What we know:
Elements: E1 14-29, H1 34-37, E2 41-46, E3 53-59, E4 68-73, H2 82-87, H3 89-92, E5 98-113, E6 119-132, E7 135-147, H4 156-164, H5 175-180, H6 202-218, H7 220-224, H8 228-247, H9 254-287, H10 292-317, H11 320-334, H12 346-349, H13 351-366, H14 374-394, H15 402-438, H16 443-481
Antiparallel strand pairs: 1-2, 1-5, 2-3, 3-4, 5-6, 6-7
Amino acid sequence: MLPNLTDDGLGVIEVADLPELDLSSTYYDTSDLRLARSGVTLRYRTGDDAGPGWTLKLRVPGLDATQRDEFTFPGAPDSVPADAADLVEALARSEPLRPVASLRTRRRRWMLCGDGDTPLAELVDDDVSVLDDDRIVARFRELELESRGPDLDDLRPIAARLRRAGAVLSEPVAKAIRALGPRAAAPPDFADVPLTKADPSSQAVKAALAAGTRRLVLNDPATRLGDAEALHQMRVAARRLRSDLRTFRALVDGAWARGLRDELQWLGALLGEVRDLDVQLESLNAIAGDLLPDLRPMVDGMGERRDRARSRLLEALRTDRYRTLLDRLVDGIRDPLVTSNADAPCSEALPPLLAKAWRRLRRRAQRVHLNDPDERYHAVRIAAKRVRYAAEAIAPALGSRSKRVEKIAVRAADLQDLLGRLQDAVVAIAEVDRARANHRANAALHYAAGRLVEREAATKADARQQFPQAWARLEKRYRRFA
């Protein structure tokens, strides 16, 4: 029985009955529930207002389980649609999808309306039966309050009233995961790996692999859908994993690590080809917006190259080679091939690894002068990135010293970003040269290209001027740690 929700200033003026539904759902997953363990559900359902069909709910990277992206697909009830299978391929990898749970739900619904019959939220009361063939093997009841416009915080008084009437606040767990029991609630293949300074340093290897693989896998679906930020995060993950394997070189089997790094380099190159063009196109809009009409042939050419690069990337993400790489990364999280050096505690084994990356950076940075070739600055940027990644990888394992290492990572990121702007300008000027060569007779393009080169050259000069100060700040921060 619903409590009275139209008093005490809850903002609800009317509670309108909605038609009751009888829903039948079949959930699909791998045999070891890789989707469910990652907070993802894929189902075929009948009885809904929209008619029968497939629904995929994906976790949003960085947010809790209540925030999920929902996608619907048409299709026959006994065959997972290809587009849905594509979006969970990084989770399922080499394992086939099959039915793992059947649910029947009696759903009662009410629309909570405010002034002017404005919908505020839909209240749903589900009585769920878990089936084994036609036999009921479990039952549970679930009450859900879903916003129809207001922020979730605005609905908290209504939720509080429901709790006073007997509803119990529960973890935000999907029905299929609740129905599947403890196996579905187990950690995903790339769950966080706890790390302390007393742990053997092999634990740090596992933690780094888990963090990078999680970033790679969780951003895979949005990358397939064309999200530029997700693609950027996948590229960072591939680069970071390669860098971490290099940082931990003294702790891991050489052949095993090289094999992973080679495959990550292959993936990173495909991601980078698209990402670099994304960055260049975005930069053009920012720095040369007034010149874009005359630069249109150059911009169109870059867009076409970007489309071709994206096609090559999507083709690669659907290969056995990519699935095998993900399987090998997951195997590495569970049981990395390490050397006897990895038996040493993190507090002893890890600081020297950061020191090694630091020495490489210092050698390169101290040799750079204002008018040196761009390649020297780019080499410093690469070395700064490795110091940053090394610091971020070892910081969680250093106890009281972790804050100092984290500050090194921040300063290294500042230097990396500064030199990144310089490198972006270098690439932009190379794009201008390409456009000039391809459109020799276009006077308007040549004039706009000349103005763009002037702006990019100013960006380069500014970065070079700021480099000594940025390097000094990083060097000072490292000395405090060392």
